[in-house]
Amino acid sequence: MTDQTTRPLDRALIAALAADDASMRLRAAMAAGSNPHPGYAEELVRRCGVEPDFFVRDMLTWALTRLPADLTVPLLLPELGSASPQARAQALHTLSKIGDRSAWTSIPPALLHDADDDVARAAWRTAVVLAPAGRAAWLANELAGELGRGSTDVRRSLSRALAGLGDSAAGPLAAAKKRGGRAVQAHVAATERLIEDPDSDFAAESAFASQLTSAAPDDDSAAGPADGT
């Protein structure tokens, strides 16, 4: 930290993070990460919540990972309660990249069920990265409650998160298959296939599973909300 704290703060760089030109903002974020300084942290976090360009946001996150976690994590956690979905999602994404498990207890469980798909997806990924081993079963149950939700991309994200929980996901998946509606059952089947073969084509597997469940006769065991939520 000696180099970072004694080096003068580049205020032109901070200003460039909000430039009109996306390429200039990208270069500024890259410079902030290449020459990290604690004085950049607050502006990097703020920009994450408003930056419209995906590549610039990713560079902002990288720049934040170059700073000490004990500086960045306390700045990111309040963003999880922001009214802005982008601020919530990017803060979660950045926390997953920092990988500081002490943040786990400060992440609201409600984010796993956020109405915004991007926030929920970021929360699933982050939770799998940060959750202590003793909370894997709880997390798997929470994630299983989202089975059947959203587009193919959203379902793929959830399936990958469940796959990342290993054996802890088996019970919740089996329970969801038994009590869920057709959308949930198809999602479970595609998830189980992804766990068996991580290189499988999730979209194709999901479509095939949907066809199979649609062709199956209705029975009481398939009763439940069609969207799995």
Fold and architecture overview:
- With 229 residues, this protein is an all-alpha fold.
- It contains 13 helices and no strands.
- The chain has helices spanning 2-6, 11-16, 22-34, 41-48, 54-65, 69-76, 85-98, 117-130, 136-144, 152-164, 170-179, 182-196, 202-215.
- Helix 3 runs parallel beside helix 5, helix 4 runs antiparallel to helix 5 and helix 9 (136-144) packs parallel to helix 11 (170-179).
- It is elongated, with a radius of gyration of 20 Å.
- The termini are far apart.
Brief characterization of the structure:
This protein has about 230 residues and is mainly α. It has 13 helices and no strands.
Write out key terms for the chains shown:
229 residues; mainly alpha; 13 helices; disordered C terminus; 62% helix
What overall geometry do the principal axes of the alpha carbons give? elongated
Structural class: mainly alpha
Work out the strand percent: under 5%
Average of pLDDT: 89
Give helix and strand order, one letter per element, not per position: HHHHHHHHHHHHH
Total beta strands: 0
Low-confidence blocks of residues: 219-229
- As a percent range, the share of helical residues equals 55-70%
Count of alpha and pi helical runs: 13
